[in-house]
Amino acid sequence: MQSVLNPILLYAACALGGVGVLVALPGRRASPYAVGAVLGGAALGLVFIGLGVAWPDHLPNLHFYLFATIALGCSLRVITHQRPVYAALYFVLMILATSGLYLILSAEFLAFALVIVYAGAILITYLFVIMLATESPTQESAELLSDYDRQSRDPLGATLAGFVLLAGLTVLLAQGSAGLPSAASLATTGDDQKLALVPAQVERTLARARDAQGERLLQPGERLAIADDESRDALIAAGVLAPERWPGVRPQNPEGAPAYAISPAEGWLVIAGSDGGRRVLERAQWPADLSLPNTLGVGFALIDEHPGAIEIAGVILLMAMLGAVVLARKKVEMDEAVKAMAAAHERSGGPGVDVLGMEGPYVEPGVGQGGRPA
Amino acid sequence: MAQALAAAALGQGAFPEPVSGVTLYHYLFVSAALFALGVIGFVTRRNLIIMFLCTELMFQAAGLALIAFSRYHLHHTGSAFVIFVLTVAAAEAAMALALVVLLFRRRQTLDGTQWRQLRG
Asked: Cα dihedral angle (A171, A174, A176, A182), rounded to 10 degrees?
């Protein structure tokens, strides 16, 4: 695996930076716990680097285990941490680890969309609500956690059910496990037929690539040819392309005009020189990275194949926004009124009815004054 | 040296391929474990906000499985579907959090067990 910098160098630089930040932070006293944690982390990192040195080809695999461990550990903390704010922050860390997994799976667009949408938008909303809907600390219980954060509900049964579910799922999944095909085989799938619709992308990739002699595959001034009749006749007359290799259906772009002359199915593409000459580039000469990029592929899958679903998603989002506004503007009785009512009910000696229930007095919001406190 | 680095950045910018060893099953296992943790958290935690955070955890598990299948079948529809998962998650977060704020204003607590006797 080649990269701009040696990954070991990057790891070492990051470790050095981490130690530097740790030292620079104010008010850090080296408690034995912290020293132990740093040493443990360093040992784990050394093992990781050693594995990376031993099998550099397996670095993506190691990253899978790293990200999977972070994701699972953080989600464990999400469900076990007593403070909701910390749980939300661990959730952000889990999202970052998951987007790392997406990157390994070559889903670059969604990895970044995940960071933006989840870590950037949804989790901020959660944090707002956590801070909005938390009981204000009183004088004697400024540090105390509320009871419902300290006590869990039926932990034994839930854990049992959850792990039985996990065991069943994994056992069933294990019966059909299979390796992932390499990214290079993307070029032979049906998605790749859309390459004819992104000529600029193809030309950029070709101009960057060199052939075995070090020559550019696409010289300056050359372009991808249009798949019109003129191209076909010239190629067949010159004998560089057998007539049966020309697709029976002429490739067309969505407007109905002839598309660009690239046929991954037949394994050729035609380059038009600046002097009008044409030459064929066979698949064997294609650069390895000539395939539909992830972002373009997702775009085609969204817009070409599921245009209706996008409309519905937009409507759902609009409805959710309206619903949230309507719900949040609803005026409810405030704390004092409810408490006074409960006290009055107790004094009158009523039966043990849940007077704090849903049928509390509801005030119809007046126009333009819904958000005002009572 | 600088030229070589620049050339490397351009030519080798392609994302490293997953080499054989990590299979579809590994990703599905992580996804299933995330989902199970989300289920456990949803059932056991009593804080309403954490409960909804756990549903987001389950959404993430589904998204990871979809992306892994999309990569396995070399088809982008799975990736496109994750965008709809994100949409639903965003809509759900907006509605659920508005509800949480409403419930909190009514009873000054986030305890989910306080709302057992929902009627009508």
From this structure: 150
Which of A62-66, B8-12, B62-66 is most confident?
Answer: B62-66
Complex prediction ipTM: 0.83
Assess whether pLDDT exceeds 70 at residue A101.
Answer: yes
- Can you give the pTM of this predicted structure? 0.72
CATH code for the part of the protein at B25-110: 1.10.287.3510
Residue B106 CA to residue A338 CA, distance in Å, equals 8
Question: Do the beta carbons of residue A90 and residue A81 sit within 8 Å?
Answer: yes
CA angle B48, B54, B59 (to 5 degrees): 135
Query: Under an 8 A CB cutoff, do B112 and A148 touch?
Result: yes
Report the Cα A256 to chain-centroid distance in Å. Answer: 35
The torsion angles phi and psi of B55, rounded to 5 degrees, stand at -65, -35
What residue segments make up the domains of chain B, in order of their start? 25-110
Q: pLDDT grade, residue A189 (50/70/90)? A: low
- Those residues whose C-beta lies under 8 Å from the C-beta of residue A276, and which sit 6 or more positions away, are none
* Optimal mutation site among B31, B77, B106, interface A, most CBs of chain A within 10 A: B106
- For B84, other C-beta atoms within 10 Å of its C-beta total 17
Pick A368 or A36 by higher pLDDT.
Answer: A36
- The CA distance from B14 to A265, in Å, is 23
- Window 63-82 of B: residues touching A by CB (8 A cutoff) are 63-64, 67-68, 70-72, 74-77, 79-80, 82
Residue B8 near residue A4, CB atoms below 8 Å: yes
Residue A91: list chain B partners with CB under 8 A: 53, 56-57
